[in-house]
Protein 1
Amino acid sequence: MATTHVAAQETETAVEPQRVVNDLSIQVATVNGSGSQTANTVLLRAIFQMGIPVSGKNLFPSNIAGLPTWFTIRASKQGYIARRKEIDFLVAMNPETADEDVRELRPDSAVVYDERLSLNRLRSDLTFYPVPFDQLVAPVCPDAKLRKLVRNMIYDGVLARLLGIEMEEIQKALQKQFRKKAKAAELNWNAVRAGYEFAEKNLQKADRFYLARMDATRGKIIIDGNSAAALGAMFAGVTVVTWYPITPSSSLCETLIEYMKRYRIDPETKKATFAIVQAEDELAAIGMVLGAGWAGARSMTSTSGPGISLMSELVGLGYYAEIPAVIFDIQRVGPSTGLPTRTAQGDILSTAYLSHGDTKHPMLFPCSVEECYTMAIEAFDLAEELQTPIFVMSDLDLGMNNWMADPFPYPEKPMVRGKVLSKEDIERLGHFERYRDIDGDGVGYRTLPGTDHPAAGYFTRGSGHNEKAHYTERPGDYVNNMDRLAHKFEVARRRVPGPVIRETAKPEVGIIAYGTSHWAIVEALDQLQQEYDIDPSYCRLRAFPFSEDVKEFIRRHRRVYVVDQNRDAQMCQLLRLDLDAEDVKKLRSVRHYNGLPLDARSVTDAVVTQEEVK
Amino acid sequence: MFTTATPPAPPKKVNRIGLEIGTYKGSKSTLCAGCGHNAISERIIEAFYELGVEPHRVAKLSGIGCSSKSPAYFLGSSYGFNAVHGRMPSIATGTMLANRTLVAIGVSGDGDSASIGIGQFVHLMRRNLPVIYIIEDNGVYGLTKGQFSATADIGSKLKTGVVNDLPPIDTCALAIMLGATYVARSFSGDKRQLLALLEGAVVHRGTAMLDVISPCVTFNDHEGSTKSYSYVKDHDEPLADISFVPFFQDITVDYEPGTATEITMHDGSRVILKKFGADYDPTNKVEALRVLTEAHDKGEVVTGLFYVDTKRENFLDQLNVVDEPLATLPESRVRPPKQVLDEVMEELV
């Protein structure tokens, strides 16, 4: 086996490869439906419990069982949690992809593999660890039907031995996973131990990767973005939830159902302080959200790109009729079959202007699980404050993968329910005009159906209404209304979350990114500085419409790279529409659209290549 | 705003909550003179007036089409929502989820419900959402000038001479099969029957689906149409003579024993069906579907209350939603305390 750098050491005999501690990525290649999720989650948690910053990404097919699936775990003492392109440690369990997976590895990587695959024939510059999985699983799992599911736990044991993952932490993680199923926990634990003991007896450590206890995850939680958004919705006081199953968004509402059943049942009456309905399609889901929003409930739905397309017509109605609504878009790759289980930031432009006529909608861009939670709460406040549909633009990477985070903060301020007139308000005012801009912010006052005052009722329609909500087709009335809506959108610019800006001493190059790209950007910024002496400023967008700060950031820099996880540079295009001509020229685009989460190296390479052209 | 100065006049007639019928009127109809939909709006006004429903408790929902414009023409001080084509059912569902104390009346048309909106129509029926669902059924698209809809009968002819050769969708049969719990067909020209059916629908606590044949005087009232005034008058076969006795009236209706069926509604109101001919049991689904199928075969327009079930739980009860409107629950009841967040966070460590 070839070794790379040999450290200058005083000893003249054994030359050990330089140890790489707490900086590696493991890729587990399995077959979908083989129960590998448990083995991978346990592995991830055990590393996390050892205090090592860790992230996990599930790259899975649109399939229940049989197609290849990969899970990558990255441990990073520096705290980088973006996907890393390079794999150090491969666990090859899937005969179908094993050869290709091995061929793609860099020299000096290590491979744990099912003995029967004889992968060591493929290359001579890797460390190979053959493991007889079938032989090991049989004695620990007498029930042949369960073997397929338990088999994968063996690699947890093998990796524990080879990398130095503490067995107590694996056991703890297993117990957490199987909370109330002691038998299943024991069965799986025996498989882990069988793997560990086999490795101890038969495998000679020959690679340079190690994991060792740190103290960088104390007090942190692990959660996926969809669960975080569900928590946010519950603490935002959502009362009506309608949804239609679609990957990668389904787990948001499914988790929300679990939380609401636990925490939102009235203690006295045992009745629900919420209604959750699985609709017949996305058209009905958004229709119910709008009906409920119109009647005054905090209502939401969750979907992905195809659902957004279907909701288009009614979202336009929501914009014109000015109805609060919260729509979570867990973005993924484009239509129909193929890559619906792969991540993308694919709906930016279509959502910004979703529907027909002149429409535009505020969007929030969470980059982390914590922001999935906080922005869910903000979205409900904004929807009622601005009386319009608000989109929370998450993605598959954020929504369905597990991420480390600090515990979420309890909401500090009370719910903002917006301008709603009560019976007493109308008695005091003597009149009510639904679409009149009394406060100069473009937002009128509304009443809720059921308000007991003869002047409270009004008729809601799409395009043709005047300030009193009376039917009109008069050109002047239409223009007034459209101008007020445009003004309201300008007001939204100041109310939505502003960007997070990290500015360098000498602003010349800037990077603009949003959502999950953030994690690749923070790592790329270090790479650019350390490897190329390029020190860009960084502006992380958190909402559309863009605040004035975003424009100023671009004004201050000469070249600004806008990072998009889509082919058509959608955010870059959206920014162009907002800028003066001279600033438009500064924008350059970095695009990533292969279905995989963005990695730092891709950003660094793209910026460096374009920086050569000044 | 709602009372105008008028010279002294004899005291006006008011309903049981002290409101005049004028309070239940809407703005002036912009539909064609003679349109069946206008007659339906008048019956709706009467039904809500006579039952003394407070207008502020009423939500009027509609989709798109001539029919869907009509909620502007009744109950002017109620809350109205004219949505998009075929999507009234979801808007109505959301509204009732948010505030179950409302009385929802959805007005749709045959195009709006049986074509573009059939998906939402069938799912609302199967949920048994508490809503009065009216299809103003004329067999054509009026606002787009006279194309066939999916309720047009086989052989019915358009003004242009085009003959419909596809079987009609019977929205009543569909509603019965799918779980609606008060299903009827009527004719906009039959004031008495329509009013009684509407009043029964208002007090019913489940989905009340009324398909009301409502001739289009402009595009579908000619010779050869099966939805014209004259055709429906000639072929109308009422199942029974229907009358409605509201819960607040202590009226005994005289009928010979065995000649009428009396249905007691949730609030104690009664729907009384006096037989015309053979026995008809409105609680029997199979019977209802048989009658509808035979009517199609014979080219008859059977009208009346086909099916009623006052026992089935409605959607909101099934969801076990609190009695108060979800929309206005205070923060203390919808935002769990900090201990809950702490507990959840602890589990995620």
Protein 2
Amino acid sequence: MAQPRRFELAMSPHVISNQTTRKIMFDVVIALLPALAAATWFFGPRALFIVIISSVTAVAAEYLCLKFMKRPVSFALDGSAIVTGMLLAYNLPAGVPMWLPIIGTAFAIVVGKQAFGGLGHNIVNPALLGRAFLVASFPVLMTAGWTAPEAWRYGDEGAYSTSAITAEEMSVIPDADAISGATPLNVLKQTFDLDSSAESAIAEGDAEEAESLMDRAASMRGALYSSSTYRNLLLGRRGGCLGETSVILLIVGGIYLVMRGVLELRLPISYLGTVALFAWIFGGSGWFNGDPVFHVLSGGVVLGGIFMVSDMVTTPVTPKGRIIFGLGAGLITMVIRRWGGYPEGCSYSILLMNLTTPLIDRYTKPKVFGEVKDNG
Amino acid sequence: MTKARTFRGGTHPPGHKNLSSGQTIRRIPAPEIVRVPLCQHLGAPSKPVVSKGDSVKRGQEIGAQNGFISLPTHSPVNGTVKSVEELPMPHRRTGPAVVIETESEEGGQVFEPWKDYTAHSPDEIIERVKLAGVCGMGGASFPTYVKLSPPPDKVIDTLILNGVECEPYLTADHRLMLENPDDIILGMEILAHALGVQNYMIGIEVNKPDAIELMEKKGCRVLPLKVSYPQGAEKQLIDAAVGREVPAGGLPMDIGVVVQNVGTAAAVAQAVRDGIPSIRRTITVTGAGVRSPGNYDACVGTLFSSLIEESGGYAEDVQRLVSGGPMMGISLYTDEVPVTKGTSGVLALSASEARDVAEGPCIRCGKCVDACPLRLTPNLIALAAENQRWGMAEDFGALNCMACGTCSYVCPSARYLVHYIKKAQDAIRARGKEA
């Protein structure tokens, strides 16, 4: 008689969807590519090199960590390290020296991710932690390396202005030379400084000085809140971190992620919506006269909103929690932009909110089926 | 046709139903030896009332009801009892069974046939359903008469027949609706009579348009439902059908609803109209692991191995044997287990079909949270369970989980979420007993 047949035992369910972590991560990589094309177009091959160096460093650092900790090294190729490497590079000015992304990425992977237990266990977004580390350690390099868009092709003369303000708009601003070499958000920050200088001038009784300061601030704001500036911001003709230039191409990536079921819209919508709301409330010179369009298009909020606020590992899993996270990050971003020491608050706002994620999840757990609905 | 309704959440695994949905139900004669489990229903196993050497008739009670949540068990054949022993079971490790050597399969009508059920009171009907050993044939095997006997303070106003069959691969209920609609409809009317409800309907997923059409033609009220797993879960079906949520920890009767599987309705019809107890059922044998999948009408106590033989034997690359569907079914190490009243399918999965992915870490993507039909946070419960933080698992609602498997199915990291949650449930219940 034949040996009775024996089957493997396994837990249900016995089938599984074909979605995998690896596919998700490579979808994110694909979604980041349009913005990389924009970075290369505006800042030259140098931008591409920075992204490649950063990604390679990320995978290498991940591999070495896993090897050292005697864990399966195949994790290094699951795509998550590449995403971290790319995002960190996207948060750097194009003019940084090539060793900077290496240090930043290595820190992001080793301290930000693997020290906490690797994929899925890190508390804050590793790429943003890496960026924060670089800003703290090399503040000058991180805030002065702004390159003018297309300067690599046309030279500084033919390049667009880093502030995204067109030459015509620029010509009406008194002492316009003083604001060159800055990003749009730097210019905005300068208008806030002019506002406070004007206030102290009034306090000292120098009305004439105050008036000229306020005129200058108003003309700068007029140039920032103009359709030509909006157009440059949408296309990417501006100074800034290399991945945040072209809003349109970032959104193209976002649409791809939504179509692939990877990006859940609650986070980006609540984040960008909150930024817009508070931009209107206090993003201008006084109250309720800020310009939401300018605030959403400038700086890194679109990059952050699509690719970092929605980082799965470090943000809440509950539907309500995701909305709260977006609200919190949006508010902090705007507070930093308006009153903080930095012109941009996107990355710190996300880092701070990352820390609250476990708590948010805990207090926003959905009401279980049958607990809420009144059947009466 | 009215618009297909559904519930919130869920997922849509590939159906693979065309493997067997075109096969008519084939009646398999009783095998030479039947191994009739005494633990086919949920609750206490029947107490054996025969012993070795006894001669039994088809339909004769061989196990007596043993408590409220329990049922009697009947012999599917005329024959001689060979033994009463513990045998491997499809739904538990082992269980008591009566082994009978078959002589013939005639007769079986042990109760008086009631040609006109309306001449009998609900209590009489319920008693008959109990004596005939009818239990839920969708998989859970809960004694049907208990569902028909709500406490006096619960008013039942709606009866829903479950013809959803949302488990991938399975087609037994589909075929039954196509081939025996009259028994199902009669059963539904008898159940409605027993419950005293005027409002009754049958829920069918729109991937079975032929069944919907046939049932509607027969004058039956059909509720078309969207194809979504787990649409056939009792609570989700009720939500889609009448828009009421069964309270967490409660029963459908708490909101005035009773749900019965279509196979159960047919069994009720046969028990009442023909006087035959529950001794046969429809089973799908399918998967790429068998050569020719099919649907069968087989005796309880028939070994899975004989069903596989009827289906042309195993394919070369058979990998896993499952009792039930692929989402909630139980994997078996052997095919030497008997069919029970609750066996809806025998699934032989080939190496390419059976899940074969190593588990990765949770990346907190939230797909399980979005998909959970009970609005739980499976990843957080699993995380708590992995760290043996049972209190936290309970906080996150672990006890509400019905183990439908939706979370594990959608998980991109292939985490065994259901397993962790079940572990948490066991630990929480054990702790509750200690306290």
